[in-house]
Structures are given as C-alpha cells and as structure tokens.
Amino acid sequence: MQKLAALESGKYYHIYTRGNNKETLFRHPDNYHLFLQLYRKYIVPFADTFSYCLLPNHVHFLIRVKEKDVLMWHEVKEDSGKLVSVERQLAHLLNSYTKTINHKYERIGKLFQHRFGRKEVTSEAYFNRLIYYIHFNPQHHSLIEDFSDWPYSSYHSLLSKSKTALQREEVLEWFGSRDWYKKFHEENAADFASIAPLIEEDEI
Asked: Which pLDDT score is estimated for 114?
C-alpha cells in the first residue's frame, strides 16, 4: 500500500475511505448516525470540519487539522506535551465503528478497505469545488436524483442556522453568502464531469 503523507497542523485535507471490497458500511440509518457520533468523539476536538458526505460504501470529509497548541494531550499525564496524532484518531474512529458493526451484525474481519486517504487542499477554487463534489456524490453515484435530498451530507447543515460542529460561517465566507453557496451547487450540477477528474480520490 502506498505510504500516505502525514496530516500537518493548519493544513486543509480531503479525507476519504471506503468499505473493504466496496462492502456496505451503513446498512441502516442508525449506522450513519453512529459514525457521525464517533466522528464527533474522535475527530472534532482535533480537526475543523467544513463538509462531509456518508454514502453506503464510502465517506468523504473536508477538514483542517488544528494548530499545534490544540493538538496537545491533556488527559494522559505520562503523554503530557505530546501532540495528538490525527491519523491515530482517524484509526480509532474506523476501529470503533468496525467493532460496533461487527458485534451488531455478527460479522468478522475488517470493514474498511484501508485507513483514510488524503489530498491536501491548496486553493480557494479547490476548496469550493471540493465542497460541491462532496455534496454531489450521492447523485453522481445514482443513489438519488437530487443530491440536496441526501440526508447524510453537510449540504443543508451549512445552510441552516441551527447549532453545528461544522465551520459554517467560514464556508459561507469562502462562497460569499448562503445564496452564492446554493447557486454554486446548482450551477455546477450540470458540469460535474469537468470537475470530477480534478477532485477524484486516489485508489486507497
């Protein structure tokens, strides 16, 4: 397996993973909610999240690793002063979810193909297009006719004014406003083919 670059403090990344042999990760709506609960537990304290989408056999997130002064151990005295490894936290997320699903459905073995893949996000244009790409995935994979109807993405949470762990205001600032955020998604729906090759995740 190709060695993955370390996630660095302050940088933005598209992270993604899929089911082992494209196995279904989420068999029931409760499974999606469980994964997000575990994500909040293991990842939210150490990375800012800008968008996400959970699909039946793969997941996408756009994150920014928090600065070094945040990535410090506080709970374990013997590790005082040691930076939290976000890669380790991502592994905890996948392992915890796998254990719960294996127990619930009486299955054995790994559930995810590999650990999270990642691509660094290095420009505003890439940032905007990646958010759109992540949200459009359910329609791209013919799971639904209109991506905005998919219940397991951040599309509507970013439009809402309800409390969220997402970096909503920062996302809307990148787009300019809620209206431009919506317009960007609507206008690019007809041009997904030209954007996808720039964003598509590597094999993992």
From this structure: 84
User: What would you report as the CA-atom Rg of the chain, rounded to the nearest whole angstrom?
Assistant: 17
How far apart CA 86 and CA 125 sit, in angstroms, is: 25
Answer whether 113's CB lies under 8 Å from 18's CB. yes
How open is the CA angle 6-110-139, to the nearest 5 degrees?
A: 75
Q: Which residues of 188-201 are buried (b: 16+ CB within 10 A; e: fewer)?
A: bbeebeeeeeebeb
Structure tokens at 110: 């790994």
What confidence tier does 126 reach under pLDDT thresholds 50, 70, 90? Answer: confident
Which residues lie closer than 8 Å to 201 by C-beta, 6 or more apart?
Answer: 14, 16, 60, 117, 119
Q: What is the mean pLDDT of the chain?
A: 88
**179 φ, ψ (degrees, to nearest 5):** -60, -40
Task: Yes or no: say if 4 and 117 are a contact pair by the CB < 8 Å rule.
Answer: yes
> What pLDDT is recorded for position 33?
97
CB 147 within 8 A of CB 139: yes
Which residue ranges form the domains of the chain, and what is each CATH number? 12-199 (3.30.70.1290)
How many other C-beta atoms lie within 10 A of the C-beta of residue 45?
14
User: Which pair of tokens denotes residue 63?
Assistant: 């994150």
DSSP 124-158: HHHHHHHHHHHHHHHHHTTS-SSGGG-TTBSHHHH
